[in-house]
Amino acid sequence: MSNILTQQKEAEISLNKIRQTPTSSYAEISNSSSSNVLDAHSTQNKDQRFNTENSNDSSSVGSEIHNTPNKVQRSNQTVIRQTLIIGDSILRGINKSGLKTDADVLTCPGKKLLEIKSNLSGEITSQYKNLIVYAGGNDAASGSARSTLYNDIKSLILDIRTKSESCAVYLCTVCPRIDTDVLPLNELLKRTREDLEVRIIDCHQAFVIGNGNTVRHNYHRDGIHRNAKGTSALVTAINRQLPLTRHESGNRSVNEHPQISSSTNRSRWQQGYQ
């Protein structure tokens, strides 16, 4: 319990600080080596310095916090912001400077559904009108049973609803990954649309083409994490459902692909798309 409270406190403090980060125009995620993504499991030193990483180095999936010093004491009054995106390391490439000023990103690298749930305190949840969750891939990759997956998804959603009745919950379908077939997981995520009145953002569709093959050039070599182009496609998919970028990139979106095939599976990844 003490570990969970500590994680929540660190997430709250870090979330306060990220809001001081200036924003700039967003067209596509660049290959910049610096990401302004908030990470719930990083420590903060006395100098409040930036942690930077190479966004193309998929082997580094450690915890990082990217923020600016905040000398303003937290107000006792809850500040309502628009959107929080929370999830596993797939979100790490998102550059906060490209998002609207009232949108934040909280990443929990390597974490599963219930671990992400533990990072969402009521104090954090109550500050946002919209909560976008990208999670479950690590659960599926670890071999969690379908019943366990659904129960954990349901537990996360109900926990959010308990902490903030007015917060709209969005679940992202999980993008293809080489270490597991995500289709059963995505079916469970979509079930919550009817069962729990959750809004679904279909991110999976952005990474497959009509024949069901995975768009491999959107990934790092590990076959799991998105490169700069893939991160841009992910953000575009989310932005179509819930606008959160500062500027539209035009009529042509980076993830315009035909409807996904129901037969997509791990072998289709191996075939790939060049």
From TrEMBL:
Stored InterPro entries: SGNH_hydro_sf (IPR036514)
Biased composition regions of type Polar residues, renumbered to the chain: 51-75, 251-274
Low complexity bias (residue ranges): 26-35
CDD domains tied to this protein: SGNH_hydrolase
Region: Disordered, residue numbers: 26-75, 245-274
Full protein name: SGNH hydrolase-type esterase domain-containing protein
Organism field: Dreissena polymorpha (Zebra mussel)
